[in-house]
Amino acid sequence: MKIACIFSVILMAVLAVSPVYGDPWKFSIDANITLTQNAYSDNWAGGEAGALSWTLTSNSLAESQINSWVNSKNTLRLMFGQAHNQDVDTKVWAKPVKSSDLIDFETVFRFTFGWFLDPYASGRIETQFLDTRDPEKDKYVNPVKFTESAGVSKVFIKEEKREWIARVGGGLRQYLDRDVYDIVTAGRETHTSSDAGITFDTEFKTHLAESRMTFTTKLTVFEALYYSESDELEGLAEENYWKSPDVNWENVLTANITDYVMVNLYVQLLYDKQIDLGGRLKQTLSLGLTYKFL
């Protein structure tokens, strides 16, 4: 956790001086909300029940060439949604259930010396607004995963409507899970763990159909070489699961029908052998309202 705190302090210091000594920041902020609703009268025959679901998504970017040899790129993705369902018999609305939840902030410093490969250093924080896993206690901004990495990067395409960049290096990850209930002691404690290994990231973004459509794909692979809890797994069937690479592949296709109406297709493939032996797939297709602040 100390590494994450030190990185945050360095980040704030760099952000504080960059507008004075470097190029102005380029900001991009857009948000969209999707809503699905259906209702039935009390005398409706067929056993249907009302339902309401909504999702709010925001994507932000702040990038600046701080000086001739340092580029800073910061991205923030926020997502939260709920589903409300009505009981078929009593017509009473149940407690809303969370359908989407994400807080993902990443900052990357790329050192542009004009070499074939650019050195880089990055930090990432991944968490959620509301943790509902514990039926006895809701927790906010939990659990949290910190990732710090450093290595080399390569910009293959850097155009107004297309961008492709890849990074490879060494990475450290820390996990924080607060107020976990212990059935043995009947108390709560904070669980922490960490690992270290090799990380690979690549991201491609392009505009289509005269810029009314945008496609973004991002692939992250982490191969752990060290795990702080490996001793506790010795002799178990899952003893070496932590050595398998973790994969996160995200794909987003956004089409702007008008200036304020959009269609969004989100597909995510996750693989973490410690969580599940198979891959996990998430797919969301939505039609909603969108607005670009900057």
Structure description:
It is built from one helix and 14 strands, in the order αββββββββββββββ. With 294 residues, it is mostly beta strands. It has a single domain (2-35, 49-292), classed as Outer membrane phospholipase (ompla), Chain C (Beta Barrel), CATH 2.40.230. The strands form two sheets. A twelve-stranded antiparallel beta barrel has the order 1-2-3-4-5-8-9-10-11-12-13-14. A two-stranded antiparallel sheet has the order 6-7. A hairpin with a 4-residue loop joins β10 and β11. The protein starts with a helix and ends with a strand. The model has no long low-confidence stretch (mean pLDDT 88).
Helix segment count?
1
CATH architecture term:
Beta Barrel
Low-confidence stretches: none
**Average pLDDT figure:** 88
Helix content: under 10%
Taken in chain order, the helices and strands follow as HEEEEEEEEEEEEEE
Q: Beta-sheet strand percentage?
A: over 45%
Tell me the structural class.
Answer: mainly beta
Shape, please? globular
Radius of gyration equals 22 Å
Q: What is the fold's blueprint, element by element?
A:
Blueprint: H1 2-21, E1 26-38, E2 51-67, E3 70-85, E4 97-110, E5 118-127, E6 130-131, E7 139-140, E8 144-158, E9 162-182, E10 187-208, E11 213-227, E12 246-256, E13 261-271, E14 280-292
Antiparallel strand pairs: 1-2, 1-14, 2-3, 3-4, 4-5, 5-8, 6-7, 8-9, 9-10, 10-11, 11-12, 12-13, 13-14
